[in-house]
Amino acid sequence: MLALLACVALGACAGEDPIFRDTGVTDYQAPDGLTCLPNGDGVISLDELAFKAGVKASYRVNPAGSQVGVNIAGEMVSGTLEWDFSSRSGNVFEAKLSPIDGTWYAQHFPDADFAVEAGASSDTLQLLRIEGDSLQLLGLASKQPDRTLMIYDKPLALLRFPLEVGAKYVTTGSVTNGKLDGLPIATDDTYSVHIDASGTVRLPFVKLHKALRVRLDVTSRAVGGATATSRQVQWFAECYGEVVRAVSKRDEPAADFAQAVELRRLTF
Description:
By secondary structure, the protein is an all-beta fold. Helices cover about 0% and strands about 50% of the residues. It starts with 11 loop residues before the first strand and ends with a strand.
């Protein structure tokens, strides 16, 4: 099962902010009213993000079922790597870290801190927790009772803090006796994470400096030997968490893929 990382972590920045420059926007505030002061050092610590149930953010995303062009590599502008995601096209949707209390799947994930949609148009939720210095994936469940339930044999550390250029790691997990869209499933999944670049990200209404590019490659081997791969590239900024996400089509061979099945950008 290709369960790409769904990550929302936000905080409102106050005071003189070295991350925001040349934006043309003077009153921008991050969603959710959380307080955070970025230090602009290009390293994102866990305490510079807010991972807790109830946090939400708005993103612009291409319509479900469509593909959109994306420049993963970026361009050098005045000696700085820059990615332009300033287009205001697409639909606005709200991503939220939801509490699990009272849900049908709560009994299966007693250690989960929150749930979040696996994708902008997905009915599948990822169950996540913060443990020590990492964001961990525990498994997946459908919004509707008993349709999808996949519990990993151990927590998968998807983000290890602090986030900084050069960080690279692999985490693996297995699901046995799982259920996906009502059908039985068992998988061995490998998540490869690489933070490989820092630069400037242009969003629809704001420009962020010293953002980190995080590559996530997922390989899933199901019973019977069928293997599927997918690529996801995210950009993170201090206090704002995930500001851009690009997801490739299935079995995409190119690391810097040119077409994304999902491209989301932080917006109002």
